[in-house]
Amino acid sequence: MKHTLSEAVPSSPPQTSSAAAVATTASALTDQLPPATSSSSSASSSIPAEDLAVGSTRDGSGWAQETVTVDRRGEYSAVCRWTVHNFPRIKARALWSKYFEVGGYDCRLLIYPKGDSQALPGYISIYLQIMDPRGTSSSKWDCFASYRLAIVNLTDDSKTIHRDSWHRFSSKKKSHGWCDFTPSSTVFDSKLGYLFNNDSVLITADILILNESLSFMRDNNDLQSVSSSIISSSVVAGPVSDVLSGKFTWKVHNFSLFKEMIKTQKIMSPVFPAGECNLRISVYQSSVNGQDYLSMCLESKDTEKTVVSDRSCWCLFRMSVLNQKPGSNHMHRDSYGRFAADNKTGDNTSLGWNDYMKMSDFVGPDSGFLVDDTAVFSTSFHVIKEFSSFSKNGG
């Protein structure tokens, strides 16, 4: 059985059959997975918008008897334990935990005991929701998180049901999780160990938030100058066709927190505009001929569901890991190719290197690539400006 990974969208799509839902599952995140993946399968569906609107105040809860405890492991890492009492007798369609803070962001858990509109029949749906930082005045924000959601088996921890994933949360995509997390019959069976103390259930969320900063310099070749501009927002709402050349720099300030995670998942930068595409840097770890390598690639990523899917750009690019040790050399690798919004046209959605550099060279204490737990990745690019036309003469 495939467990589908879901995210919030502005409105609910039509109800699909279970077969169609699974078919969507298999293809939705194909381009997001590194060669070594976690055991959970992924897909795309949605949380109904009307459910997200209910009880959405910062300190609200789902009107259920509950207990929330948070174990913090630093500013950007925490484990939330959410105990919901009388779980089998709850009539509400959706429950949400109280908010808790991780990395400056407000987080909460959302559960549908009988599944949401996208769930397979008889399945429980569970989601992580991350809200904008308190005190921010901008509607444009995003953050990358790696997380594990679990329903704990108190009698046998080896039977605890858990799913792992990662996601870049934003003002438009605040929720992510599984519409078919596990069969409800498994949890509701009092003999299996998931219910305890008057039919309570324990749901946990292990969350890592990426501490990052970025800069984007755009070279405006059309003006025949070397002037550049800084785009301060980390989210690009749509394509910016006049950005034909530039440099994107992404600093990860808590890399060691994700050192184990990148063995099976990947970390991804915010997107930046390049020609008709939006690109991002992706970093993960691969094993090549028995040797561990830092892998890095450049990916195309649509930020809107309504954009034209046949747009593409031919791009020359250099990907770099910057050495922060004075007098030391940076690591550079160059490539080129055509990026497309999706792979339906046969063009690339991802280009890069599984064997970008040896992990031992990257993390070495004297190498200079990882200093004060900070790694600096960058890419310089040049988009080839193209014009094409086709006309058919009548015979």
UniProtKB/TrEMBL annotation:
Residues 77-207, 245-381 form the MATH domain. PROSITE patterns: MATH. Signal peptide: none annotated. SUPFAM superfamilies: TRAF domain-like. Residues 1-60 are annotated as: Disordered. Residues 8-28 have a biased composition (Low complexity). InterPro entries: MATH/TRAF_dom (IPR002083), TRAF-like (IPR008974). This is MATH domain-containing protein.
